[in-house]
Design brief:
mainly alpha
């Protein structure tokens, strides 16, 4: 029985080893999935919408991005806008 378990694998062809299929099979599956995804994307393009973008509609209605720009400027400079600055504290009297 030990002779059966100790069979040398040196003479076997490369496709008989399971590890080879795991190493080659993973990337092969990814390549095939990429081609399938490309085919789906090429044959079914997204339709072009004739709708005004949300930002243009907001600008027409008077909605601006001022709070977002103030936050961005505060992050870049570290200074608060004039409307958010607290008045200077008065010194306490003894």
């Amino acid at each position: 029985m030990n002779k059966v378990l100790n069979v040398s694998k040196e003479g076997q062809p490369w496709w008989r080893f399971g590890l080879v299929w795991m190493v080659v099979g993973g990337p092969a599956v990814v390549v095939v999935a990429g081609f399938i995804t490309f085919y789906i994307a090429a044959t079914n393009p997204d339709p072009v919408l004739n709708v005004t973008p949300r930002t243009a509609m907001q600008e027409r209605q008077g909605i601006t991005h001022v709070p977002a720009m103030q936050g961005r400027n505060h992050a870049a400079t570290g200074e608060l806008p004039a409307a958010l600055q607290a008045p200077a504290a008065e010194p306490t009297k003894p």
